[in-house]
Amino acid sequence: MGVKKIPRRQCVGCGEMKNKKEMLRILKTPEGEFTVDATGRKNGRGAYLCPSMECFRKAVRTKGLDRSFKMAIPKEVYEALEKEMEQLG
């Protein structure tokens, strides 16, 4: 039996590789909505962020989420995500 591999993801804010379970998943649903996926299992395109406001602000500043989703993300979406992250943190 081999050792079980732990999935790792890169933060779109700071660029660090961390365990998937330690990170928040920002999800773009097939309908085009953006939410924080706490379970990490919902359908849609995901981008990962460290659960800190610092990394979130860095992702906004460097347009990390825009690059991940290959589209410009409206300011209202960032504001909604910021509120969701404040509630989780």
What features would you describe in this structure?
The termini are far apart. By secondary structure, the chain is α+β, with helices and mostly antiparallel strands. The strands form 2 sheets. A 3-stranded antiparallel beta sheet has the order 4-3-5. The model has no long low-confidence stretch (mean pLDDT 91). It is built from 3 helices and 5 strands. The longest helix has 14 residues, at 75-88.
- Ends: how far apart? 38 Å
State the share of residues found in helices, binned by percent: 25-40%
General shape: globular
Major β-sheet profile: 3 strands, antiparallel
Radius of gyration over all CA atoms, rounded: 13 Å
What's the arrangement of strands in the largest beta sheet?
4-3-5
Q: Which structural class matches the secondary elements?
A: alpha+beta
Distinct helical segment count: 3
Features:
two-stranded antiparallel ribbon; 89 residues; three-stranded antiparallel β-sheet
Summary of the model, kept short:
With 89 residues, this protein is of the alpha+beta class. It has helices at 53-62, 64-69, 75-88, and strands at residues 8-10, 17-19, 24-28, 34-37, 45-49. The chain has three helices and five strands; from the N terminus they run βββββααα.
